[in-house]
Amino acid sequence: xxxxxxxxxxxxxxxxxxxxFYSFPVLLIFIVFTSGCDDIQTxxxxxxxxxxxxxxxxxxxxxxxxxxxxxKSNLMLGTSMxxxxxxxxxxxxxxxxxxxxxxxxxxxxxxxYTSTPAENTLVNVYPLLEVSADSIVFFNEAADWPQxxxxxSLPENQMEATLSGKDQLSNQSIRSATLDFRKLAD
Length: 186
Description:
By secondary structure, the chain is an alpha+beta fold. Helices cover about 30% and strands about 45% of the residues. The chain has a single domain (about 50-185), classed as Lipocalin, CATH 2.40.128.20.
């Protein structure tokens, strides 16, 4: 009886050593393979967002809203400004970036849109819902308003930015705003 127990224990220890020996290389191959896939996905998503790069303006009342987007390495940096009577006010700074690689393994979206309003340290985070050659959609159900952000490329250097969702701060009504921009020549 003791001998069988020792034999079983030996098999268990041998199996444990085999698993220890092979698990690291398998994990390493998995990480290298998926990292390469992420790099391909990163380049694909960035190329689909490239149309957003540049300076976009819209005029309303006596104010001009300007959004400037610049591609830097693996992210897009944006600034939203209002120009009224020659005075410029920065309203928010935006980023479209890839999240930490470890978070993507946990099932979180890899791409997020973040905005930091001027005069505020609060960062709003909107995970990427979808991206195509002519639109980028972000969604955050927990945001006060908007919960959904859609940037859509239109013909003749036009862009439409649609903000929509429930207004959490007021009466919970659903509201939407569509902002029409035109791109300045490079």
